[in-house]
Design brief:
alpha+beta
Length: 504
């Protein structure tokens, strides 16, 4: 009792006891609040120590050691960490007031508006010459003078690589949009790669002043020839085909029945030594493919999927690009190459054949074909109305536009070995003569717009031989109608009844 009384009566002792109690409570509170963190820390230390202990029992041939782990765990000193340099900022151009008082506005460019060059294909054209076909920025060619350098790099040789300036051809006559077509001719002063050692053709495409702050040169691997792949005979041997058709880009919801008529008609006309190259830009949908497949299996048709070209905004689905690729791809495989559309039908008079006409024009590198325009709405009604819808388009669309004194589009034929680049209606880059005087020898019937829609073409049934629609006179021309029966029999003989149920 005396001790208790002594303690209670001593204020210093009481104060010390209270402080000790408070400190103990604070320590316990801190520990209690940090229990999860302590558990995590202790678990990590335990795992790390266990891992180091375990590594001591690993065999010596392993490529790492405990010391390596310690080095990995240690951080580099702060002085060895070098921050990346900041990105360079483009110099900003500001508006300027000229001495004349005119304010010259500035335009600051960022990124790239269009590709310098888009390679589609490249082909060897002889012992020392190549053709490179692609797209390029149209503004670049309008406001600048881009240049091309061709370099041949042989395989496994220490000789100097020959180089030559490329000659650019712009075959679309300025019709390009964002992109224009470029055909680069690379002709070296002497043969390259003719010994069969192989090599690679590089095309160096330079913008050359398109933008003074953004001049650049892109190196393009155009052609690679493995050792032993060069075949000189292809340039001198007789062509595989007498006639080869290079089609423009097909797009839209095309009519399978119109395609059926067109392909059967022209396979019959062009004969066994002919071939048709169809370029699918979205128009060869499953129903059209069903029409083409029997002819593909017979070896008459090749379909090429070119839908990727839709990414690049060129004239009319880049048809100038496509026909130039076709020209150079099949240049040595065909004696004659035809360029026209799938709503156009070639015709020669009854007293002649296609062969006799072509032989009579063999002295020309190129000749053009006159057009006969057929109405795509008027149909000739000469029997029961219910039967006309079961007829082929070339049987019932017989009203010919008779307007005279106007210029109609022409299509053309070339001997491809004498052509360097080509267009849609004719080529301006040929060696040899061109003639347009083919009236009465060969022509084509044009059924404009009939193939682009999957519906019955007849809008008006007419039973007169002559009539006017507005100011346009029409007259019945049964030339193609008379040929339809033989074409139908030819189709049945060649591929059977597979396409009899084809719909519009």
């Amino acid at each position: 009792m005396a001790k208790e009384k002594e303690v209670s009566e001593n204020p210093n002792n009481l104060k010390n006891n209270n402080n000790n109690n408070n400190n103990n409570k604070m320590f316990i509170g801190i520990v209690w609040n940090c229990v999860p963190e302590l558990k995590l820390l202790l678990s990590a230390l335990l795992f790390f120590c266990s891992l180091i202990t375990l590594f001591q029992f690993f065999p010596n041939h392993l490529s790492f050691s405990v010391q390596d782990l310690r080095h990995c765990a240690s951080l580099p000193p702060p002085s060895s960490v070098i921050p990346p340099p900041p990105p360079a900022l483009a110099q900003i151009q500001h508006d300027v007031t000229l001495p004349t008082g005119v304010i010259k506005r500035s335009f600051n460019t960022y990124g790239t508006a269009a590709y310098n060059f888009i390679l589609m294909s490249a082909y060897r054209g002889g012992l020392n010459t190549f053709a490179v076909i692609g797209l390029s920025s149209k503004p670049l060619h309008v406001f600048s003078k881009p240049t091309y350098l061709c370099e041949w790099v042989p395989h496994n040789t220490t000789r100097q690589n020959p180089t030559v300036s490329g000659v650019k051809i712009l075959p679309d006559w300025g019709y390009g949009r964002v992109y224009t077509v470029v055909v680069v001719n690379c002709t070296f002063p002497s043969p390259v790669g003719h010994d069969g050692s192989g090599g690679t053709l590089f095309l160096h495409a330079s913008t050359s002043g398109g933008d003074a702050s953004f001049n650049l040169t892109d190196t393009i691997q155009a052609v690679t020839e493995p050792a032993g792949s060069f075949n000189q005979v292809q340039f001198t041997s007789p062509p595989k085909y007498d006639y080869l058709y290079c089609g423009s880009s097909l797009y839209g919801n095309l009519s399978p029945q119109r395609i059926r008529e067109w392909i059967a008609y022209h396979v019959k006309m062009f004969g066994e030594k002919s071939h048709f190259v169809i370029h699918d830009a979205g128009g060869v949908h499953p129903d059209v493919m069903a029409v083409l497949r029997p002819w593909i299996e017979k070896g008459y048709v090749t379909v090429q999927d070119i839908r990727e070209e839709e990414r690049f905004d060129g004239y009319y689905h880049n048809q100038f690009l496509i026909v130039n690729d076709c020209l150079h791809r099949y240049r040595f495989m065909a004696k004659w190459m035809f360029f026209f559309d799938v709503d156009e039908f070639i015709f020669v008079p009854k007293k002649s054949t296609l062969k006799s006409v072509m032989d009579s024009l063999s002295e020309y590198t190129q000749f053009t074909i006159e057009q006969r325009t057929i109405s795509n709405k008027l149909c000739y009604l000469d029997d029961h109305p219910g039967k006309i819808y079961r007829k082929w388009g070339i049987e019932k669309l017989v009203y010919r536009d008779m307007v005279r004194g106007i210029r109609r589009d022409r299509k053309y034929v070339v001997q491809p070995r004498n052509v360097f680049a080509t267009g849609v209606h004719m080529s301006e880059n040929t060696v040899g003569k061109t003639t347009h005087k083919t009236e009465g020898k060969i022509m084509y019937y044009h059924y404009h717009g009939t193939i682009s829609e999957r519906r019955e073409p007849c809008r008006q049934l007419v039973n007169t031989t002559e009539m006017k629609v507005g100011s346009t006179p029409y007259m019945v021309d049964t030339t193609m109608r008379e040929a339809a029966g033989a074409v139908k029999r030819f189709e049945m003989r060649m591929i059977g009844s597979a396409l009899l149920t084809t719909r519009q």
